[in-house]
Design brief:
Layout: H1 2-11, H2 13-25, H3 32-46
Helix pairs in contact: 1-3
Amino acid sequence: MLFNNLRFFDWHLIQYKIDIFFLFKGVNYVNQDNKTKYVVFANASIG
């Protein structure tokens, strides 16, 4: 599972940078797809 999360994270690295930029800027645009990506990002970060 960790391998899959990291691979997913790697593949979407640029998208994560964009998403996190907006997330920390407080832009309220988050939909279900983005929530799922943030969960995967958190899983990859925690390891």
